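Bug #77: duplicate submission created two jobs. Keeping one. Sequence:
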Amino acid sequence: MKTAATHWIPICKIDDIPILGARRIKKSMGAEVAVFRNAEDEIFAVLDVCPHKGGPLSQGIVFGNSVACPLHNWTIDLGTGCAKAPDEGCVKRFRVQVNGREVCLDSEELSTPDEQH
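Kept job's structure:
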């Protein structure tokens, strides 16, 4: 069985994302993508919409591998995209590849319609 090739596109440099912060990336369809950088220079990408009330996750506080939504303080695990208990819901995650200091996202994922789980 053949798998589809991943088409990585550069979106920014790691240093363009503030430590413990985010940068927003426009998609061709739907909401923007929030690309986060934690204190260990790990990079995560999720749809910039909290599963609770649609708050902009890119404006939240990053700690460890999580972000707190600025509207109602829901904690979203950036590795899974899911809210931490007792809250429930998930936000779409995007695959990330880091080449040197360059952050890349999958162009096919960026061109698909948004979905919440």
